[in-house]
């Protein structure tokens, strides 16, 4: 595959003496800790082995040339004009990353880049963060001797999403894509940015990714609305507990404070955040102990809360998680990522995965009129140059 990408690269940009390098930036799933990475909570994602490949070479033309095997649109961006343009569509992500890399005092320069991604489109597996980190690492390797700290690239990716694209996302996706580790989940404290790797051993079970094939458009979604609802909740809670900076600073003993929030939906959002943060800590303990049954139960609780309290699931995710959780050999299933369509995950007995798919697939299709896709992927490394 990589060889054919290099052939495509040369066909597109021509051959010369400058060195061609190859990169891979993963996609991610989040095991648990949903919609709390912008509330100072803990999250527990993994990088997976599908993602975005990049073939790149320096040029002396002061241009970033971009093309993708997945998109028709390609283009040339002048390094003197790193600005958002609607017509640049997907290329706005690379443009933003390059702009902020420079703004933060690093080197940039001309590059020819060809991209190929095997993340299902609009699936909520974070193709945009995967692209951001890919471009960040390409610029890092070619123009900064690989010396930009990965955490700085993570922050640049997030900044691109927030300031350049205009979606107020948290830091989870860029974090795991930048720093993920093969066969490990990562417990990230989104407040302190401390992190810890956990051996991702599900014993005789497997993660199955459940793609609803219902496209999720983050920009159009209620994501920003949820954030402002949480700001509202925090504003009220701060009046009743001194010294809190984030909703996730609150624990079980503080739940009575929610009484002060009059609007039910705002109260529910805060309740989800506090309880989800508690579940993440329990999930990390369960995984460490090898108690996969318990982990599965926590996934189901998380999903119920995202459906009923945070209200970010929608009919497609609800259908696929409902049928998954009905199946005997499924330890737990829930939505993953932003929600509103996109993907779920399920922990399924390894020897029952085919049966699981045969059970869920027709029921889901009958209910929604859409055929789901079931993806299995190993837990992989974060973004890197590859050989
Ligand atoms: C998207 C965002 C993340 C996070 C999740 C929900 O993937 O990019 O920052 O908020 O949604 O947990």
Write a structural description.
By secondary structure, the protein is of the alpha+beta class. The protein has a domain at 2-199 and 380-386: Ribosomal Protein S5, domain 2, CATH 3.30.230.10. Helix content is 40%, strand content 21%. It is built from 10 helices and 13 strands. The protein has helices spanning 2-13, 92-103, 127-143, 150-165, 172-179, 223-240, 264-289, 292-308, 315-326, 353-368, and strands at 20-30, 42-43, 45-58, 63-68, 75-78, 111-117, 184-189, 195-199, 205-211, 330-335, 343-349, 373-375, 384-386. The strands form 3 sheets. The chain has a 6-stranded mixed sheet, sandwiched between helices. It has a 4-stranded antiparallel sheet with strand order 10-11-9-12. Strands 2-7-8 form a 3-stranded antiparallel sheet, with helices on both faces. A hairpin with a 5-residue loop joins strand 7 and strand 8. The longest helix has 26 residues, at 264-289. The mean pLDDT is 96. The chain binds alpha-D-galactopyranose (GLA).
